[in-house]
Design a protein that fits this description.
Largest sheet of chain A: none
Number of strands of chain A: 0
Shape of chain B: globular
Order of helices and strands of chain A: HHHHHH
Structural class of chain A: mainly alpha
Oligomer: heterodimer
Number of domains of chain B: 3
Distance between the termini of chain B: 40 Å
Shape of chain A: globular
Radius of gyration of chain A: 11 Å
CATH architecture of the largest domain in chain B: Orthogonal Bundle
Structural class of chain B: alpha+beta
CATH superfamily of the largest domain in chain B: Aldehyde Ferredoxin Oxidoreductase Protein, subunit A, domain 3
Number of domains of chain A: 1
Number of helices of chain B: 30
CATH class of the largest domain in chain B: Mainly Alpha
Largest sheet of chain B: 6 strands, mixed
Strand content of chain B: 5-15%
Number of strands of chain B: 17
Distance between the termini of chain A: 7 Å
Chain lengths: 79, 654
């Protein structure tokens, strides 16, 4: 599911450190609430991918790639 | 009760009152143990501006719910006090067997307050607690006092925490030991113990730790021990101890040669773990329940120090009074200096760091033989370094000034900003032997924001950039970017520091050794939650586990904020920011690097929800962590921190 534009994705791809920016972005887009934002931040990136797959924001294959390759693949899947 | 003993012991040395206080379920669940219990007491029980040497100042000794269990490496014990070195929150933890013994005696925490009229030691024999005369032990080295107490009590198997002569003399970076040579090194807790006329605490425990689900616990622990057996980091630690880092530090350019003037030296291998093991290592000694066994014992075999023996050294103990002071040619000089700082009972990092700063002040012409009492402070002069170690411990002459620590000494000598430039400190504490221009930008960031001053040593431990590359996929799993495991990069570092600090803080609340969880990554958060739940019978989640770390860390941050230490003080020694790393050896990988702190700091604040102007945690964050009283405390201080008067008041320490 496309939740970010190509321009937004490009901005995230260029960042050195992306976790807080992407979590804030997804919360502001209504993908999850503040409580989920906090849980994911405490636990780590893998929980973000798990959540997005569970909520069918990304497919199982995309989740698998995102778990293996990190933010680059996740951002690609989200645009 | 499962896991915890369920009570703390409080000893008032002024009134000789001894009390036992139950710890409620809510309290244990909120603060967990060890560092958490201690930090809570330091923040909530003492007036803000109390002198660390005031009789009413507390010394807290804490163990966690895992202490004394069969889980891997559960031998740590945390000692906390308001630091006489930094004036802020202080704590340090040590291995050995004392932590388990405290638990078996029936306590999760010991709080010492008051001041005895004459030197005493505490004898805890299960529920029997006595204050005993220690006049005959005063002035003794820990190894001497340990033996004398064991003979006096007629039990060779008891475990004893002790201070050395430096603690008695209130050297601001004196430390304490258990089992003779396991040191809680940093922040000067030994000086606070000494200020109370307390020589030590002898402990004998005959109880056990109740386990809620013994079968599950054994399964979890068996699995983790199997993992440890084949872990990629274990063999190096077992074979060479933490001295295994010497050759790695030299290759990657974070070896603190001459007070960090350079990051490598051609002869670093003289003191490497490999050389130590082949020449002076007598035997290995592990801590309680530890499958790694990284501890070692040294016996010097040649030269003028032949025959000297001591426990250790660790990397962080050996480099400050060695290469940081320009000593590298004869490693026996370095081992001897380690033996000396052990015997006197001083933090080797602060002692060596302060001497190195003094040598550089002398080199740069900021001080002369007039200030040093005739000593010519030159790099690599073992005789001078050895003399200064002794003078510091005894507070004699120029040593009395250096016994204040590098930043306070700079002020006592009137050296101004130039003096502080070479003291290589953050928040009044010299940084350990790890140059962030090579070890990594995550480490550097953790120096800047550390809640006990500039120290990663067994603290935030951003080991994902030290050993993360040996665990393929781990940085991706946790941080979303495998490139974060490269040290000299900003990629993923603010989040790495946030994550690792929380994780490590909770690990300190459990009093589990971080070498299983942050150097080796054999034991992960999910494993720790498994053994915690099997032990306590409770239902901790990974999020709650991490949140406890964030709560404790944030409380410690607030401790500093109450002393008007915040965003302005979040920095690292200017040398790391300004001076490009010179080339020390041909194969060095980080030539030209500087440390880009400011590019990462504001992002880090966002993870923590700290106000970028003050560096104070937001009220919202404090309330979310259940720290409503702290939110109330900090509210009037936010504007004060931004006032013109405070802006002019640059703090090197509190």
């Amino acid at each position: 599911m496309a939740v970010m534009t190509k321009a937004e994705a490009k901005k995230f791809m260029e960042m050195d450190d992306r976790m807080i920016d992407i979590l804030d972005f997804l919360r502001d887009k209504g993908v999850f609430n503040e409580q989920t934002h906090r849980k994911i931040l405490l636990s780590g990136y893998f929980r973000l991918v798990e959540y997005l797959e569970k909520e069918k924001i990304i497919t199982g294959k995309q989740a698998q790639d995102a778990q293996k390759n990190g933010f680059d693949d996740l951002i690609y899947a989200l645009q | 009760m499962n896991g915890w003993a369920g009570q703390r012991l409080r000893v008032n040395l002024s009134t000789e009152e001894i009390t036992k206080e139950p710890l409620s379920y809510e309290y244990r669940r909120k603060w967990l143990g060890g560092r958490g219990f201690n930090s809570e007491v330091l923040y909530n029980e003492m007036p803000v501006n109390i002198d660390p040497f005031d009789p009413e100042a507390r010394v807290c000794i804490g163990v966690g719910p895992m202490s004394g269990t069969a889980a891997p490496s559960t031998g740590r014990v945390t000692v906390s006090a308001k630091s006489p070195l930094t004036g802020g929150h202080g704590d340090a933890n040590m291995g050995g067997h004392w932590g388990a013994e405290i638990k078996y005696a029936g306590y999760d925490q010991i709080i010492i307050q008051g001041r005895a009229k004459k030197p005493v030691y505490l004898w805890i024999d299960d529920d029997k607690v006595e204050i005993r005369d220690a006049s005959h032990l005063w002035g003794k080295y820990p190894r001497e006092a340990d033996q004398m107490i064991k003979e006096e009590l007629g039990d060779e198997d008891i475990h004893i925490m002790l201070i050395g002569p430096a603690g008695e003399n209130m050297v601001r970076f004196a430390c304490c030991f258990n089992d003779v040579w396991r040191a809680a090194g940093r922040t000067g807790t030994g000086a606070v113990i000494g200020s109370k006329n307390l020589k030590g605490i002898a402990t004998r425990g005959s109880g056990t730790v109740k386990i809620a689900d013994p079968k599950k616990m054994m399964n979890v622990c068996d699995g983790l021990r199997q993992k440890m057996k084949t872990d990629v980091m274990k063999d190096g630690l077992y074979e060479y101890g933490s001295l295994v880092l010497i050759n790695i530090a030299n290759r990657d350019g974070w070896f603190p040669w001459k007070n960090f003037q350079e990051g490598a030296h051609l002869h670093a291998d003289n003191m490497s773990g490999e050389t130590h093991a082949a020449t002076v290592m007598k035997h290995r000694e592990g801590c309680f329940a530890c499958p790694i066994c990284c501890g070692r014992f040294t016996q010097i075999k040649e030269g003028k120090y032949a025959g000297e023996e001591f426990g250790g050294p660790e990397y962080e103990h050996a480099v400050p009074t060695g290469p940081r002071c320009g000593i590298i040619e004869d490693a026996n000089d370095i081992w001897h200096n380690c033996r000396l700082t052990n015997d006197y009972g001083m933090d080797g990092i602060e002692c060596g760091g302060t001497i190195a700063a003094a040598i550089e002040w002398y080199e740069k012409g900021l001080i002369t033989t007039k200030e040093t009492g005739g000593l010519e402070l030159e790099w690599g002069n073992e005789e001078v370094v050895e003399t200064l170690i002794r003078m510091i411990a005894k507070r004699e002459g120029f040593g009395d000034i250096l016994a204040e620590g590098a930043d306070r000494a700079a002020d006592k000598l009137g050296l101004g900003d130039k003096g502080h430039y070479y003291s290589i400190t953050t928040r009044g504490m010299t940084v350990p032997g790890d140059d962030p221009r090579g070890l990594g930008f995550g480490y550097g960031l953790s120096f800047a924001v550390g809640t006990r001053g500039g120290c990663d040593h067994l603290r935030s431990l951003c080991c994902l950039e030290l050993s993360g590359a040996l665990y393929p996929g781990l940085c991706t799993k946790l941080l979303g970017d495998e490139r974060a495991n490269r040290p000299v990069t900003k990629v993923g570092k603010p989040y790495m520091v946030y994550y690792e600090e929380n994780q490590k803080t909770t690990t300190d609340c459990l009093n589990v050794c971080c070498f299983t969880t942050h150097w080796s990554y054999a034991v992960r958060t999910e494993d720790q939650v498994d053994y915690l739940n099997a032990t306590t019978g409770l239902d901790f989640t990974e999020e709650e586990f991490q949140e406890i770390g964030e709560r404790v860390y944030t409380l410690e941050r607030a401790y500093w904020n109450r002393h008007m230490s915040g965003a302005r003080e979040d920095t690292v020694p200017e040398r790391f920011l300004n001076e490009p790393m010179p080339q020390g050896v041909e194969y060095q990988t980080n030539v030209g690097a500087t440390f880009p702190l400011n590019d990462m700091l504001k992002k880090y604040y966002r993870y923590r929800d700290w106000d970028p102007k003050t560096g104070f945690p937001s009220a919202k964050k404090l309330k979310a962590l259940g720290l409503e009283n702290v939110a109330k405390d900090l509210e009037p201080l936010r504007a004060k921190y931004l006032s013109e008067a405070e802006k002019k008041n640059k703090k090197w320490y509190c």
